[in-house]
């Protein structure tokens, strides 16, 4: 893992609230939900009173998943606020919904890899959502606690000729029994680099790039060694996601696969036996 520990005042305040609440009354079990946002990504992590999003779903001329799906689901789950929004990389199927999410949850802080600080695409999405550059948490590789969970965030470097996908944040959430890893749209090239840096072993693996054949290599699946894989993709999408080769690799590794296009929202609850699927 590269880079120093970096905790901002916001992190300390946010996490302190979550930890403090746990002393006063029992907290519900941590929950990780992959919302069915069509061809895109949005995951919601709720622990110790904190609500953290990893991506916010797509927005395009046909649908604003932020307004139509993410906000209504959050409100239905009783989320009174969103504390933090990670934007994995500057693609519309991941961050297009930002404006609508922030319109309802204006107190949410936005966290972006510092590798995208000068990305014109990222800047335009932030500007469209009314987020000024100085209000963004520009991340270097970071570890922080959220309630009983450790959150590890790594920020792969992005060279001038590298695709934005390979700068996707690598995020691992873990307590003593449950763990999950999310990698945006990173390709196998980024997976190889990250696997060499740190342990990403996890119960639950969000399959990279919606099940594209250029992600989820055999080596990465072996490194994560997941029990369950989640594929977030749109029904009948034009990209052919998930690719048959990826499904074959997961089957070969004995991994249980769940798909948002076939099953809708996928919600996992932390238990002493690891993350367990709570509802479909
Ligand atoms: Zn994507």
What is the element layout, followed by pairings?
Layout: H1 9-24, E1 31-34, E2 43-47, E3 50-54, H2 65-76, E4 84-87, H3 92-95, H4 98-104, E5 109-113, H5 120-128, E6 137-139, E7 142-146, E8 149-154, E9 170-174, E10 179-182, H6 188-197, E11 204-206, H7 218-224, E12 228-231, H8 244-252, E13 256-259, H9 260-263, E14 266-271, E15 274-279
Parallel strand pairs: 3-4, 4-5, 5-6, 10-11, 11-12, 12-13
Antiparallel strand pairs: 1-2, 1-14, 2-3, 7-8, 8-9, 9-10, 14-15
Helix pairs in contact: 2-4
The structure holds zinc ion.
Global structural class: alpha/beta
CATH uppermost class: Alpha Beta
The main sheet comes to:
8 strands, mixed
Estimated helix fraction: 25-40%
Approximate strand percentage: 15-25%
Unreliable residue stretches: 1-23
Task: Report the principal-axis shape.
Answer: globular
Total strands: the figure is: 15
Corresponding CATH architecture = 4-Layer Sandwich
CATH fold type: Metallo-beta-lactamase, Chain A
Q: Mean pLDDT score, rounded?
A: 91
Count of discrete structural domains: 1
Strand order of the largest sheet: 6-5-4-3-2-1-14-15
Radius of gyration: 17 Å
Can you identify the CATH superfamily?
A: Ribonuclease Z/Hydroxyacylglutathione hydrolase-like
Give a structural overview.
This protein has 280 residues and is α/β, with parallel strands linked by helices. It has one domain: Ribonuclease Z/Hydroxyacylglutathione hydrolase-like (Metallo-beta-lactamase, Chain A, 4-Layer Sandwich). Helices cover 28% and strands 25% of the residues. The chain contains nine helices and 15 strands. It has an eight-stranded mixed sheet with strand order 6-5-4-3-2-1-14-15. The protein has a seven-stranded mixed sheet with strand order 7-8-9-10-11-12-13. A hairpin with a 2-residue loop joins strand 7 and strand 8. Helix 2 runs parallel beside helix 4. The protein is globular. The structure holds zinc ion (ZN). Zinc ion binds next to helix 3. Pfam families: Lactamase_B. This is MBL fold metallo-hydrolase.
